[in-house]
Structures are given as structure tokens and as C-alpha cells.
Please model this.
Amino acid sequence: MTKYIYQYDQWPKLTWDDKEIHVILGTVRHLQGKILGQMGALGFSIKEEAILSTLTLDVLKSSEIEGEMLNYEQVRSSIARKLGLEYAGLVHVDRNVEGVVEMMLDATQKYKEPLDHERLFGWHAALFPTGWSGMHRIDTGNYRKGEMQVVSGPMGKEKVHYQAPQPECVKQEMDTFLNWFNGETKIDAVLKAAIAHFWFIIIHPFDDGNGRIARAISDMLLARSEDSSQRFYSLSSQILIEKKVYYEILQKVQHSSGDITEWLDWFLNCMYRALMSTDETMKRVLQKASFWDKHKEMILNSRQRLILNKLLDGFEGKLKTSKWAKIAKCSADTALRDIKDLVEKGVLKQEEQGGRSTNYELIED
Model:
């Protein structure tokens, strides 16, 4: 029978090949710095919008990885209220949404505070406010008291993907983990986020919610790595895109005798891709901000503002009079008047291709 990583004598001493991950770690650190620099230059309201969008995405996607779909407006509303942000359209929020948001904000906003058993119990209780996970009653705010297997497949034909350490070992395993987590280490904080994620998943200390808590732990260490509670990228969003590989790599490395290079390499590359997609989003945010700053004195009607914002957000396809009329819910004549006004003001221009139907595009700076 294949052994699990925690069954080897050297556990929990984890090793990796520094040379193999050196380049990607440097690239990730450089990109992190670049994005933080860009965000530092933004105006207050744009920065607030970026933080609110990122945290909303992180909460939604981390739950989605576990197959739980939360309501976007509720999540966004809950975060805005808890951070004291101005946000039109605050809605009623379910208890389970409030709990997930509380855990994520506690991890990212209070990232300097130590992580202990009680804090983790608080996160776990917040994730399961009713004491139930689906149809199953679970022990909340406590480490598990039973055996833990990760299984899939129909009843009677289950496939065991992972068998976690015995329940009587969990408290001691978590003591060792938390001592390492809170202790001074010479390990880069981004690397520490990757190690902590894997180590926590291996212990699997709770009846349920281990994946979400592992990702919150990673987010907490990433906030430490930047010494900032302001979040501008979502690792969970990228993990969701790569969910199949995420589980495959965890399953493979859980049988290693202690070397976790392959996991670290995947985690850092996944983070690189998360940062790259944020880089693209940030470019759009900056372009939009500079556009509205440049045209702040211009008199525009609500239809023109609506369509210009759509164009700045990366409008799909060609902008024609008919499309304008449809989106702005107005007549074709009104749409044409709106467009001609923007052409005269030097905001839109006719596409050079011409052809039978006339298309319009933004005049780039």
C-alpha cells in the first residue's frame, strides 16, 4: 500500500529544490511589486472599487471550488458593509454568506495577528453557522473527532483519494503547524503561503471546510508578503480555473516522502497566472480612470455614459447605431444623435473600414 507523506519518519520536515523554483518565485515577487505600485498610484475611489471587486471574487471563487455557489450581490454587499465602503445597492445577506466573508476579512485585514487554535475554530464556526454541512451535522469550532477520508463516487462504489491522520493526532499536528506558522522563518512569505496551504490540507483537521480555510491561510500569508491588507488579485479565482490540476497535484504530492517541489512549482505558477490576469484588469481600470479624468468637464447624457463605460470595459463586437439603440433602450434616431454628438466632441470616431454599415470606436489616447 502506498504511504502518505505524514506516515514517513521525517514528517513534518518538508523539502524542495530551491533551484527549480527560484526563477518563478522571483518573477511572482516582481509582478506583485509592480501591481502594488500601480495600485498605489490610483485615486481613492478607484482603489476602493478594485479592492471590493477582488475580495468579492475571492470569496465567491473559493466557495465555488467546493461546489458552493454564493450570491454575488450578497457577498459584495457584506464586504462593503464590513469594510465601511460606500456602495449603492446594499442587500440582505444570508448567515452563511456573512460567515464566509467574516473568515476571509479576518484573514486578510488582520494578517499581522498570530494564528492560533481559537482563531481557526472561529473561522470554522463562521463557515458553518447552523452546525450543518448540507445534510450532515458536523462538529463546528472544533477539530474533528472521527476519521477523515476524501472520497468520490456513488455509495458502495466510493473511491478513496486521501486518508487523513488519525483524529487523536490532530491537536499535536496542529500545534506543530501553528508553531511553524507563527514562528520566525527565513522562508519567503509567498513560499510560506504555498507550504502552509499544502501542510494544512494534509492534516485535514476539520470535519468540513478544510479547503476554504487552507485558501484563507494562504491569503493571510500573501497579505503578510506584501505587508498590506489591500487585495488586488484573487488566487482562488485562478485555482478554480485550474481546479482539476489543483486536485491532481495535491493527490500526487500527498504520497511524496517529503519533497514538495512539484506542489510549490504549481502553486507559484498558478499565482503568476493570477497576477497576470490582474495586470490586464488593472490596465483597464487605469485606462478607464484616465478617460473619465480627461473628460470630467464634458456634458454627457446617461445613455452616452452607459455606452462609454461598456466600451471602456472591453465591449464585445462592433458598435453600430442599432446596437447603441438596443443597449440604451432608445430609438435609432436618438442613438444616431448621441453618437454624432460624441464624434463632434472628439470621443468617438468612425471605423476606417467603412462598408455597408458604419461602426464606431473610441479615440485612443
